[in-house]
Design goal:
3% of the residues lie in helices and 43% in strands. By secondary structure, the chain is mainly beta. It has 7 domains: 155 residues, no CATH class; 75 residues, Immunoglobulin-like (Sandwich), CATH 2.60.40; 77 residues, Sandwich (Immunoglobulin-like), CATH 2.60.40.10; 83 residues, Immunoglobulin-like, CATH 2.60.40.10; 78 residues, Sandwich (Immunoglobulin-like), CATH 2.60.40.10; 83 residues, Immunoglobulins (Immunoglobulin-like, Sandwich), CATH 2.60.40; 56 residues, no CATH class. The strands form 15 sheets. Strands 13, 14, 16, 17 and 18 form a 5-stranded antiparallel sheet that branches. The chain is rod-shaped and about 230 Å long.
């Protein structure tokens, strides 16, 4: 049997069944020759061994460039791992081994005596006369034509390695990788199918002149026996370039709109960082919202690649959001030359406020004032004038929020020279106004209640059908644009009305009780009652509040008293209602005796003389007592006639 082999070092165990020999041969610790092609001389080449001891050797004889293996009958153990590609036998060895590179050889067979059971075998179309035998990876033998050239391959077990990429920038990166198995001659580096260097002996190299933000696939091939092994792989992105021309396009109270220019290199996405959150977008503009009004916000924009492995340096910009508008703007105090303006601080932050007011006073006038507080007094205004007022919150003393406006009038000047006159049921009010003729509001109050209101555009008014002897207060305000001036007040009583129907209700020797009816159109009336007796020089008076009956006590009996009742309003008194009424008398009899003397004889005895004397006495008492007290004078007839 003749067998073609390529390399003389095996580390495998194979049981080969040689159908041509008809016997099974066990090879153990077989040493096979390593030789070269091109010699025509017979020579013996020393064998090499991988796994140690060799019990027997084989002799390789070179004849016409044919290497013949004469196997000994001794059993050897060989560990083989083969794979066959066409006519090429590939060997994989698990433990370390040495190898040599030889050129392809031309196989040639020798004839050896062979015994056949059937001297005339049946030929088939695949029959090869004088074949060479090749071994397959799974141990089987196949016949090959000895003339076929078999290429020699230096082969290793499949090697898995990894390329580490560090120090990545937008233009460069550093590669490091693992050492290949065995005696590696050098390394060949490729990225994106571009070879950068053929013969690298170190385990690292640098890539330069790369494009920013670009994906790179790196392969490092260990080269052994002049052939590359399986590559070590690595991938990476270069760092993208920062965005350019970052600018704030617009801002609102809660949003800032950013825009920038895309890099010339490839960029897949962008990150926008704020104090509270990070936003991702694939566009070159973004609207960042949910911000605090009036705050200074810092924005950082980064360009990134699709797998988020690389981000550019930050491009930064700062901007204020607009402040929110003020709320509850109102005028709290209005006078003829000043208006007090108040408002509530808006949400967020403000640096100050810009207050503006304008009005027309022959020409258009507009004024601005910066204010830090939420209250502002506008002064030096014309009275009775329409004033337009607005407040704007500002951030950073420059960025203005939304304007809030309110319109109101300054108060007109108050009236002067208010004068009131009254009768029993009317009050007339008159006044003066210094300039123009605005509207006026007049209120009439009685007992702290407004009973009548008049809105007029003249400087006098009359209130009718009032109660007599009542205290009324008149309040006058000038009005311009619905805004009243300071008020001017004055009070006056209507004239009192005489009480009606005074009468004596009860009496006795020392008491007199009087009653009367109140005057018409009265509610609460003050009365003044008096009782007089000129005879006794007696005078008594009393002020009554809304009472129509009164009793005088401690009087003289039999005395005729004069009673008067009047309604009273402030210092004014009505005409009196009068009544004379006597107390009951307590009668006493007094006897008077008169002595008559006359020069004329018998004059005193004349009857008419006594009558004349009685008349004169009665006249005397009439003049002295009158009707002030109860009395009577009667002539008493003489008990003794003739006297």
């Amino acid at each position: 049997m003749t067998m073609t082999t390529q390399r003389g070092v095996f580390n495998s165990s194979v049981m080969a069944n040689n159908s041509f020999l008809g016997t099974t041969t066990s090879l153990e610790n077989t040493t096979l020759p390593v030789t070269s092609v091109g010699t025509n001389d017979s020579q013996s080449i020393p064998s090499t061994s991988v796994n140690g001891s060799v019990e027997n050797t084989t002799t390789v004889t070179s004849m016409r460039s044919l290497y013949v293996l004469t196997a000994t009958t001794q059993k050897v153990s060989v560990q083989l791992n083969y794979s066959v590609v066409g006519t090429t036998i590939l060997r994989t060895v698990s433990p370390p081994f040495t190898s040599a590179v030889v050129s392809p050889i031309e196989a040639e067979c020798m004839k050896t005596p062979m015994q056949y059971q059937d001297p005339e075998p049946e030929l088939n179309k695949n029959y090869i006369e004088d074949p060479c035998v090749a071994i397959l990876s799974f141990g089987a033998w196949v016949e090959k034509k000895c003339e076929e050239r078999l290429p020699f391959i230096c082969y290793e077990d499949r090697f898995y390695g990894h390329v580490n990429v560090t120090e990545i920038t937008s233009e460069s990166a550093t590669l490091t990788w693992e050492s290949g198995p065995g005696d590696i001659e050098h390394y060949r580096v490729k990225y994106n199918n571009k070879t950068i260097e053929e013969n690298i002996t170190a385990l690292n190299t640098s890539l330069k002149d790369l494009k920013a933000g670009t994906f790179y696939s790196v392969k490092v091939f260990p080269v052994k026996c002049g052939r590359p092994l399986y590559p070590e792989n690595g991938t990476f992105y270069t760092v993208p370039n920062p965005v350019s021309d970052l600018q704030v396009v617009n801002m609102t109270e809660r949003c800032v709109y950013l825009r920038w220019n895309a890099s010339v290199d490839k960029v897949d996405k962008y990150l926008i960082h704020t104090e509270k959150k990070t936003t991702e977008t694939e566009n070159t503009e973004v609207n960042i919202c949910d911000l605090t009004p009036g705050n200074l916000h810092n924005f950082k924009v980064q360009a990134g690649v699709s797998d988020n492995s690389q981000w550019s340096a930050n491009s930064t910009i700062s901007a204020y959001t607009k402040p929110a508008k003020v709320s509850n703007l109102h005028t709290s105090e209005i006078k003829d030359a000043t208006i007090t303006l108040e408002w509530d601080k808006p949400e967020g932050n403000v640096s100050d406020y810009l207050v503006n007011w304008s009005y027309y006073n022959g020409t258009d006038i507009s004024c601005d004032k910066e204010e830090k507080n939420t209250i502002f007094i506008i002064s030096n205004l014309p009275s009775g004038t329409r004033i337009k007022m607005s407040v704007i919150a500002r951030a950073n003393h420059t960025l203005k929020g939304e304007r809030v406006t309110v319109v109101n009038f300054t108060a007109p000047e108050k009236i002067t020279n208010l004068n009131l006159t009254s009768t029993e049921d009317t009050i007339t009010a008159e006044w003066k106004y210094p300039a123009g003729s605005p509207n006026f509001t007049i209120e009439l109050e009685h007992e702290n209640q407004v009973v009548k209101t008049e809105n007029i555009n003249k400087t006098s008014v009359e209130f009718r059908n009032l109660n007599g002897a009542a205290n009324y207060t008149v309040t006058v305000r000038s009005v311009s644009g619905g805004v009243p001036s300071d008020e001017v007040k004055m009070s006056i009583y209507t004239l009192p009305v005489t009480p009606r129907n005074p009468r004596l209700k009860t009496k006795n020797e020392t008491h007199l009780t009087f009653t009367w009816d109140p005057p018409p159109n009265t509610m609460t009336v003050v009365y003044k009652v008096t009782l007089n007796s000129s005879f006794w020089s007696f005078h008594q008076e009393k002020i009554l509040n809304n009472k129509t009956m009164y009793t005088f006590e401690g009087l003289k009996s039999g005395t005729n008293y004069t009673f008067t009742v009047q309604t009273k309003a402030a210092k004014e008194l009505s005409e009196a209602a009068t009544l004379r009424a006597p107390t009951d008398p307590v009668l006493k009899e007094i006897t008077l005796s008169m002595v008559c003397s006359s020069k004329q004889s018998l004059l005193c005895d004349a009857s008419n003389t006594r009558d004349i004397a009685l008349e004169k006495l009665n006249s005397l008492f009439e003049a002295l007592l009158g009707d002030s007290v109860a009395w009577s004078l009667k002539k008493q007839e003489s008990v003794n006639p003739g006297n």
